[in-house]
Amino acid sequence: MMKLTISGKTLKVDDVVAVADGATVELDAATIPVIERSRAAVERLVDEGRIAYGITTGFGRFKDQLISPSQVKQLQLNLVRSHAVGVGDLLDERTVRAMLLVRANTLAMGFSGVRQEVIALLLGMLNQGVHPEIPSQGSLGASGDLAPLAHLALVLIGEGWAKVNGERMAGGAALASVGLEPIELQAKEGLALLNGTTMMVGMGALQVRRAINLALSADIAACLTLEALNGTDRAYDDRVHQVRPHPRQIECATFLRQLIAGSQMLRDDDPNNVQDPYTLRCVPQVHGAVRDSVAYAQWVIDIELNSANDNPLIFVDDETDEIDVVSAGNFHGEPIALAMDYMKLGITDMGNMSERRIMRLVDADSNRGVLPMFLTARGGLESGLMIAQYTAAALASENKVLAHPASADTIPSSANIEDHVSMGSIAVRHTSKVLEHVERIVAIEMLSACQGIDLRRRNETVKLGRGTQVAYDMIRERVPFLTGDTVLANHMNAVTELVASGAIKRAVEETLE
Fewest CB atoms within 10 A around its CB: which of 82, 201, 240, 297? Predict the structure, then answer.
């Protein structure tokens, strides 16, 4: 298993994925002097009795309440306990690991004023598999993901709950079981742990990788359907896309041509059938636009992964050693909220395209009789894949509700001090559900297309495309040609696993390379 070194500067989406999947993490030794300098600045502020938000004052509406030096530790402890108000389903282990990594990386930048020991404990929990129980709901996305991060921080102080090797344990016991000790929060440290976009960006990073895999899997599904329906590849001609030069439309069309290169399942030029329906003909235009939404989300997440997003931030002048404490708004999740809303809208529409291709596969009237009704030769006695399309339609319909932008809403909080919030955590949670649904829709399309290919292809020597053949073979290793009605859910789940894991996408890419 790989080991990742973090410095607050170089973290990328796929690094988050690797750590979510079990990679270990260490702190770049070069960051330690910067962290220590920031910490020393906080201690000077307390010793000098200077007024600094969240260090020597209360929080939110209580920003004008001064806190004595003797109470600064209690202030931070109270903050963590009082903010642990999360509800709903617990976040999965991969998301929790992503959050631990992201928070450690942000604190390593040296603008948050925490001790090195805080970062070391976050990394120790990651490396030893101590995963706090974090409810998924309760964040408004400004001031960051307060409630989820409070539940994470509880375990650092020996409270709350965590899982170690699947066993649920009290926070202190969980740490002790792997040889770690809780910390006593010092000035600023509770606030630094809670105040930031960690849930949004950690979960968002995992979803970006998932969306990249899904977008290419949808391209593969579309090409399998094109072959099953005896479609034409004329609309994928490079000249068409060069004269409308959206980069990811061009990339998509190139990938489609590679997938179906050498296929004998496509029709030649036919004056009586010169073009296919939009869901086949316009794949580069629609899927290319979806790729744009994913690329934008990745761009935003990559920036946010290496951002100081708590409040206040501590700046120390290199020459004068003068301390400047700046209260600002880097915790606001609007960049992530808008990016994830955009991406989930794109993924939703990709699911709409896929569901309509499924409809065309199972409806003989729509596919001009190229395939039998509902992909069964004994229609009436058998229903074939009739109801599989129902499931795809239900998922596509639910996505249209989830695609409503969470960032369009805001409800003021903290006695109207926090008078505009991003709802970014809602955006990322809904995006996760949309991705799950479209992975299943695309899997149903692949299952249906392979059934259609076998119904059309009487002679096994008739070749599929260079890339689609790989996908077809992987699916057929899991799911046989359906000779009669059976429990389709099992087969749908098997193909969904291939899609969701990225296995089909990786195998096809390796072949094309």
Answer: 82
Locate 220 and state its tokens: 């593969």
Which structure tokens are listed for 421? 């919030």
Domains of the chain, start order: 3-196 (1.10.275.10), 204-512 (1.20.200.10)
* Euclidean distance between CA atoms 300 and 14, whole angstroms: 14
The gap between the terminal CA atoms of the chain, to the nearest Å, is 25
The per-residue pLDDT for 65 is: 85
Cα 68 from chain centre? 42
Q: Which tokens in the block code for residue 271?
A: 């004056």
Strands 87-90 vs 135-137: parallel, antiparallel or unpaired: antiparallel
> What is the dihedral angle through the alpha carbons of 461, 465, 467, 473, rounded to the nearest 10 degrees?
-30
Three-class DSSP labels, 473-492: HHHHHHCCCCCCCCCHHHHH
Q: From the first residue on, what is the mean pLDDT of each consecutive set of 10 residues in the chain (513 residues)? A: 92 98 97 96 90 84 83 92 97 98 98 97 98 98 94 98 97 98 96 96 98 98 98 97 98 98 93 92 98 98 97 93 94 97 98 98 95 95 97 98 97 91 97 98 98 90 95 98 96 98 97 94
In degrees, rounded to 5, the angle at the alpha carbon of residue 128 between the alpha carbons of residues 124 and 131 is 90
201, 334 contact by CB (below 8 A): no
SS (H, E, C) 21-81: CCCEEEECHHHHHHHHHHHHHHHHHHHHCCCCCCCCECCHHHCCCECCHHHHHHHHHHHHH
Q: Is 478 within 8 Å of 496 (Cβ atoms)?
A: no
State how far the Cα of 281 lies from the Cα of 235, in Å rounded to an integer: 6
3-state DSSP assignment of residue 5: strand
Q: Is 401 exposed, middle or buried (0-12, 13-18, 19+ CB in 10 A)?
A: exposed
